[in-house]
């Protein structure tokens, strides 16, 4: 539209109902039907994708989205001599270990992107909670304990629904009881 190849009024007429499609890595259930569709498009109906190949496809992150899947199916149909497409026909990227997964637990395999994301969020939640308990205040936890700015820490705490004031409330209670003449002695 900015270049002048697309009429602005037409764009705004079509943009009445925007359609948001999540990335393929979040729609692993769409992979098998897409493989069948691409197989038919490229006249590869006599070739069979074994279940091990489809499982590798479902575990892969698909940074190139549906177009990358289409290209991979087309490549396999063209370059594979056999009627059965097996895991050994796949590109090495389908076997590479994700360095993030190795950091998080070695051989951990996640069936989908959401499970992986939830696992990372749980680990981050545990780390932040433990650092907040270790340090006197949030600024110290951010700068000394985590090496991040306190604004970054605040945004992560909010995103992960971690109570920021839990430790601060305990300190305030102790300070208030001391200022009221109660030195912490229980009668």
Helix-strand layout with pairing:
Elements: H1 8-14, H2 31-41, E1 48-49, H3 51-59, H4 65-79, E2 84-85, H5 99-105, H6 113-134, H7 138-146, H8 150-159, H9 166-179
Parallel strand pairs: 1-2
Helix pairs in contact: 2-4, 6-7, 7-8
Descriptive report:
Mean pLDDT is 77; it is low at 167-187. The N and C termini lie far apart (77 Å). Strands 1-2 form a two-stranded parallel sheet. The chain is mainly alpha-helical and 187 residues long. It has helices at residues 8-14, 31-41, 51-59, 65-79, 99-105, 113-134, 138-146, 150-159, 166-179; strands at residues 48-49, 84-85. The chain contains nine helices and two strands. The longest helix has 22 residues, at 113-134. The radius of gyration is 26 Å and the shape is flat.
């Amino acid at each position: 539209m900015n270049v002048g190849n697309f009429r602005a009024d037409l764009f705004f007429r079509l943009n009445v109902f925007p359609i948001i499609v999540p990335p393929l890595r979040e729609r692993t259930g769409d992979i098998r039907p897409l493989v069948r569709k691409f197989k038919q498009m490229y006249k590869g109906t006599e070739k069979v994708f074994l279940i091990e190949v489809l499982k590798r496809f479902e575990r892969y992150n698909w940074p190139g989205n549906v177009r990358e899947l289409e290209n991979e199916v087309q490549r396999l149909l063209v370059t594979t001599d056999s009627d059965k497409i097996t895991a050994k026909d796949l590109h090495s990227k389908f076997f590479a270990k994700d360095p993030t997964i190795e950091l998080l637990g070695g051989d951990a395999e996640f069936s989908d992107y959401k499970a992986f994301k939830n696992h990372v969020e749980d680990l981050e939640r545990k780390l932040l909670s433990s650092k907040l308990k270790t340090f006197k205040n949030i600024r110290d936890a951010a700068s000394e304990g985590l090496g991040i700015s306190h604004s970054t820490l605040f945004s992560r705490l909010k995103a992960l629904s971690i109570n920021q004031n839990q430790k601060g409330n305990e300190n305030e209670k102790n300070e208030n009881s001391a200022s009221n003449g109660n030195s912490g002695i229980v009668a």
